Fold each of these.
Amino acid sequence: MPRALRSASSLTAGTYRWACLVVFTCAVCAPSGTVSSQTDDLDILMQAQPQQGEATGSPEEFEAWSWLQRQKFIRARELAQATLKKNPRAYVARLVLAMVYAYREANFPRALYHLNIAREDYETHGATPTTGSAWKWHPRILRELASVHNNMEHFTEALQWMDRFNSQYQPQIIAEKAWPLMKLRRFDDARRAAAAGLAEGSAGQRSVALNALCAIEFEAGNDEASYTACKAALDDSTYGYTGASAVDYTNFAEAARALLRLDEAEQATIKATEAVLSWYGNPWIELTDLYVRQARFAEAWSALQKAHPYRARRPPHVQITDRAETRRAMATFLMTMGKSKEALRRTEQALRAPDRRAHNSRNPMQDRAIIALLDRRVQRMEAERLMEQAAADVWWKRPWYWAQSLWLRYKGWQRGKLALSTLTDPSETAEHTLLEGIFQIGTSKSAITPPWMIGDLTELVESTLARQILHHAKTIDPRPRAHGHYKGFLAEVEYRAGNPREAHTLLQQAIPALAEIQETLMQARMNALQYATAMQLNQPRSAGTALFQAYAMDPGIFRRLELAIPIHSVTSSDDLTQNVAHAILRSPRFDSSPRFQQANLGFALKVSQAGPSLRCCLMDRSNNPLACSNTPLKSDQSPREIRIQASRDFHDTAFAPALDLSLTDINSLEGSNQTQRDTLNRTPFGDPPAR
């Protein structure tokens, strides 16, 4: 099967292969029934056009086209513009210019402008020319119009141009119509288009139709049917002569994740990283998300480092289609690493510049809500970090920390309102459909939702409404493996509502169910809440067990939940170590009440001098070190500076997984280890000027 149908776009978190329409171009297209070639390679795509002597066009226009064939976009653009200055009705030059805007710059509005003019100028030859070969440009223009309208999410217009093509040319666009129909949520019509593609009988139409059914059933909420359809599409691709591409594997992985078969999803996604490159979707991003939710932080870091190089291999016009999604994945990973400041930059950028979702089946409101919710949590994490620093500084400087912290919390409150208003937007949903769907982890309504973080919504939704929504979502969800998610979310509702006994009971049911499906990070969150509820219920033994289990899985959970953990100090008697220990114990992360020491509950803090460094260790109940920081002691530092630095180093070490990340490492995620260069923001002609 031609590669175009192997590498287009994948479903929801993967995208469907709409690119097959873009590239199902008229190399041999004719008004009567000849067969066209189908490909997805950009170089072949550019060559799929009449040559000089075969169609109307000036020598200058064909020279511009020849540069376009070689993907020398700047030269092609210069020649096309020069030709149009001499002859504004040169429709071949218009087409060249439109394709430069579309395929090099992803400037689809400008591409559409020139395509419309090219069509109007061409049709001066007659709407359906029957002599000569000038007609060979016309089907190309019509297909490009359908493609550009789709990229701009004008799905009704895209269908109209497909129908216009079908009224004049063969072979017709059949199964490709399923995608825009699905985006318009006309699922029955989309299924009929896919069935017609299967009935047509060609290998190309079968591939498009099978992938369409995979996406349609997923988006329609038929998770088992989607799994079956995606498996059929993958099998069809695997046994074709080109083999399966990344999109085939990521679509199947998405369907497996919907059924919470995370092992199966992982294996399919790993195969996607080794398969033929696809224009849309990034399997390394999907692996990062999966590894983070399973608390496999070293593997998540390794996958995230490969995301940008994979993305950079794609053609220029599709590199920006998942820019915000890449930033979201970076932000979630950095948040779990305790890097709130670095995560904050990514969430704010993703909010300012959302992705186009033409090649992705999920509702773009889901992306907007999740990014807003992430930004809310990161704002509050940064506020917590400032309060931790304030505890180590002199008293008269603390009001400045408090003021900054309040400002960050206010911004977090704004982001929470944005997330909630997005999920309850009456123009997008009725009866809280989006809000209800976001709790249905893995489905099309919640495909990118981090299950370990979605409990934050329970802080924003009134408890009675939250209970109603969760009970209804659970009732209509047939997946048995989703049991642990709903128990956990309901436990958070009861905890926020001040019902610790009900919350504690639900948590005891949720934790083993989450462990069974390897939802480790959410399991850590549930353990942290079980510690909190057990303390409220005066059950110190149960609290202690839950406390250490939560810390072992995810040390950062206590900062994200803004919980204080019990601790006592076992420092030496010299002034410096005691001074540092007292500063750390004042942190909002710790509660040093004597009752914890009497009950032998919680952690111990040990501060000591180790040669030229100050060593701060968090110890378990058996005095084994769990996390230790080392702060160099410099002769020119004041006691205040040592205290502040030692406290910062300790918090950064104690409340993050044991994975050493430098600022250079973090910047390299965006393709550069230089602070001033961000290749996610690069223009089609290179990097923007440094600010």
Amino acid sequence: MRYTALILLLLSTFSSLAQSQLAPHSKLLKRRVQKRHTIRTVNPMPPGYLTPNVGHITVGIGSSNLLNRFNPDQAFGAGIDAIDIGSYGQGAVGFKLPHRGSTYDNASGDGYSRLTDNDKTSYWKSNPYLASYYTQESDILHPQWILINLTRKHSINGLRIHWANPYATNFTVQYWAKNHDNPIDDPTKNGGQWKTFDKGQYSAQTGGEALLKVSSQPLSVQYIRIVMTASSNTYDSHGQGDARNRLGYAVYEIEVGSIGSDGAFTDYVSHRPDTKQTPIYVSSTDCWHTVKDQTLSDEQVGLDLALRPGGAGRGLPALVPVAMAYGTPEDAVAEIAYLKKQGYPLTGVELGEEPDGQFMSPEDYGALYVQWATQLRQLDANLPLGGPILSTDSVQCFPDNRGESDWLKRFVAYLKTHNGVQYLSFISVEHYPLDPTASWTALYDEPAAVDTIFSWVANAGVPPNTPLLITEANVCAGSSEAVVNVMGAIWYADFIGRFFSDGGRSAYFYRYEGMPLSSDASAPYSNSVMFLADPSTLALTSPPETSRIPVKPTAEYFAAQLIHREWAQSIGKLHEVYPVQCDLMDANGNQLVTAYALLRPDGRWAVLLVNRDEAAPHTVSVKFLDTTSHYFKGAVQALSFGVENYAWHPNGADGYADPPGSITRLVQAGGANTTYILPKGSLTVLRGRVH
């Protein structure tokens, strides 16, 4: 028997194009961005670019206007977040969980719940690290639950629970009291709440097979929840050799239905060993597994393969995740101890992964966080630790007894009352703002979406000056052409510009490995990558550090070039961010052009201008203002990329870009009367000295 962490380790695989032209960035590996560019002088105002109206860009340069300082070498992570390395023939190793509770997961999606698999020898078991034995507080404070979605309303008055060991001695059976709302996706919508059936309160239970009449009269409901608050602490099927085997709750199979006047029970649950079973969600799952549960198809790669000198990460400092929701603190400590012994430099450790996607309560996650962090700090008292790595912002959960439903606020509150804030060196979340079907005009919302993240974190009671990291981001999470056309590039520019203007510390793109186009069901062919690979060329050579996959860059690649190497200056020194105002608006009040200004270590100012107008170019003047007005002087380098440089042509799995992408490079003289052309649907960097 083993409790081994499902460690998310990362592999970086780059083509010669990727390594020579752009230093990629992601959650695990950080890479220095090399400045490498040439400028050619051309007519500063090409025919066809002029528009009758001039927009005005004003940069506030006084010391009181300073918004943020950041070091690009730390701000733009490098490498790969997580990839399905199995498709690359690397023999990646992961483990399935025999006591899984939820029907669906956020990974391969080929698992299923053991609660409705029609097998009374398999069982779900909750996470033992949430029992009082480890949390040092009452189990009532960490109730574990099973939620059943019958997919439509049924007349319900009874349940049959086939308890395993340990079983619940005290539990409550509830129903969702809103007719048309989903408690999983919208736990706070329209005042939805869980109500206890009039006969749904149970205590001093003895396990076994229990047929329960939970309601005097049948109720028409779709969602049912069993909340467990006291355990029998009897050992499970794995024996008495490990205390964890008796902690928590376990159930073989569960049935939900109606009990007739003759005592006959009608079950409305579909029991089958696949994802077509009646959907089940659980509060946690025991990570127990054995070697026979090993799988080669999960997102797992070797530590050394990613971090050794000369390996995929080139030996550069890494932000490394450790498993928490499905791991053990001992495994987390072992992982970091090994990395330190090998001499691999670390910038910090992220604890866990996407607790909202696992439907974990903030208090449960907080309890695990404190346990893991305590042991990691015993290994290294100065190790930067952070999380909680929520998959989106403003996450809401089932309200507590005070009516509070903000996930992050409750997580931070738990840390504060359990001596855990000392372990919160940074806050990290993920950012996928747009729906896969979103239109170009949805790009107008990105700056406000970034502002929302900062407001949400501030309102959650996070200690002041705690750095905010976006450790996984792209324009959208699903299959969408937005991530392979210029829409993705425009989004990326606004995301990065606004994030560092708002005071962000580090931002990580997902994802950088070369991958072929793919499609989800009827969705268009796409992939959330900066490099598209031909499916026939995915076999890697050995050793991995010399492997190459021929790839073609997507629009987001060119955006990253402009931002990481032309807007910012990668020499390991601080950049200063200043506020910018622009008066270019459309008839509906949307800001057509956004702008972000840096004072670079070389003394030059760099202004990133994002023309979000897909149909028309715009002309702007640029003024730098403290107590008086200042302007670019001498040569002003203007570098742009947009719809005139890159056009995506859908063609199923063989989609392509034509033109394939390039950066337009111009030089013109600055001055008070100089105007600058922003091509339609583009991002432009203006860089020079200011008089």
Amino acid sequence: MRIAMTPRRSQSLTGRLLVQLTFLGLMVLLLSAVIIGVFTHRAETAALTGRTQLIIESQSASLALALWSLDRRQAQSQVTGIAQADDIAGIAVLEHVRGGKSQPWVVHGDIDPVSQLVFRHQLYAPGEVSAAIESPIGSLEIGFSRRALDAKVWNKVLTTAIGQIVVMACLLALVVLMVRVRITSELRRLASLAREFEPQTGHHGFAALSHRQGGDEIDEVINALEDMRGKLESSYAELDANRMALVRDVEARKLAEERALYAARHDALTDLANRVGLDLALTSMVQQDACGYVLLFDLSDFKLLNDALGHEYGDAVLVSVAQRLRQLAPTPAALARFGGDEFAIAALSSDSEAGMVMARRLHESLSASMSVKSQSITLSISVGISLFPQHGKTAAALLRNADTTLNAAKSKGRGVSMVFEPSLLLGIERRHLLESELRVALASHQVVAHFQAIVDRNGELLGVEALARWQHQSLGWIAPADFIPICEATGKMQELGFAVLRDATRRLAGWRAAGYWPDGAYLAVNVSATQLVDPSFAARVLWELRAQRCNAESIVLEITESALVNEIEVCQRNMQNLRAAGIRLLIDDFGTGYSSLAYLGRLPVNGLKIDRSFVRELGEGTGSEAVIRSVIDIARHFSFSIVAEGVERNDQQKMLELLGVDAFQGYLYSAALAPGTFEQEWLSVAGTPTISRGQSSAT
């Protein structure tokens, strides 16, 4: 409740203040007037006395000269004129002595000298300032009366003091008024601010208070301050409630921050540490100056499994792997999902073999049957290990070296575990060098096609496969295993594929023009996944063939099975356009994935190529024979031709022949040869082509 107070005693306050200030000011003025009067009197007396003395002396001299030639009346007039000109209110006395008697003449200021003629002893006492003059007409004396001078001085002092009192009184009144207005306005402003005060708590009501009725500005301020206190007291409960709400909010924020920090350091799917959490844990271990290891592993062919059975199933597999990892890992240890299908273990151990022991346990555990969503699967992993402090003194160095080792292990095949060696860094440096020079190599035609023969059961040539080779200016020939992964990582696969196609079709056109190339033979060129998902791929291939004047019917494009996992509609459209132009299509590395089985019946495919991994394991009891038999059954069902690659031994060829394979490729027959060498060894003997002219099995 607001109470508006009217200041009833504001006039009394200012009145009292005015009286007090006026009294004090008057006392000061009187004291000042007395002091100023005394000093003024002394100063004026001294000044007038000096001036009068000078005037008397000067006037006496001039009067003496005048009286030598004037009679009494003339002298009186002369003296009167001199006295009337004096501005100091002095008295000039002319005493004419004749016949031994003195008769004083008195002239005072501007009064008629005749009417003021008095005797000398009535005006001034002997001994006061005067000057005597001797003249032919008698003795003269000029002087002034000190009493008259005192009267004149005091009159001037009083006039000055009164003027000063009036001026200072006016100033005092103005000061009192200004002080009164200033103090009153500030007090009322303070009261207004106090009345307008509202606590910022959202509460605007307060209980009515008892006020001091009436009063001056002080009472008004007191009432306003009491109002303010009432507002504050009425808001205590709400402030306490807000404080409790703030405490709860702070606790909730703290909990949210802890959860956010945990989420920032852990993988949401497996609840293992992520890269950030692993880096922090490994840094803590390294700072202890202890020994330990960092183990990285990833799941082989997890992408194919994920694409074939769905991401939900793939996530369930990752969760199962994390559970087994917790069961196997030592305590304490940092476990992490490093990204995708890659996991990590960091642990302290003085045993340098502890990392390899853990790798073997992982191989055994994950290769055992695992039930995920009612399906039984087995997994294969590759492992890279780095030791500390031998292989690095920081978390970043240890993780980098372990990752380098993991890549080296993956390049050697499935199920391989390796410990870091400094020589592996040389491979990294070489990779960086090749990566920086690859673009120039593709533009300057350093990447060319080499050719590997495809033969029938009698060893006669059915066709050739064009394989990419890089002839480096300083390093010599670079193997495909060294630069093709770089092309995949840098997005150069499409450029590489067309470079090989361009060079191979140019060679084919030359051989055909020379009469070395019979109509029944074919040229096989690999197609990457990035090429096949390009909507303009088919048009670019046909443009290259026309540019090289190459017949489309003599071209076979080998499409890797993994290339069919993404954008199947675009892939199917490109394949149909190529098939309509007369180009034959063959699925390469068949059997290594699952993606093509769902689309095999509706893809315009002419043949299948059995992957070298199954051929290499023939006769070793690994089940490769059953896989090859299944592939052959599928090919026969769809009337596809079959080519087995990677044939290196005669017993492998015989087993493949028994299984029904008619076309073979591998080191048993020929390695990939440079164009000139291939031409000499396979296309002519003394100018006669040796290529088989029978019907190609790729049709």
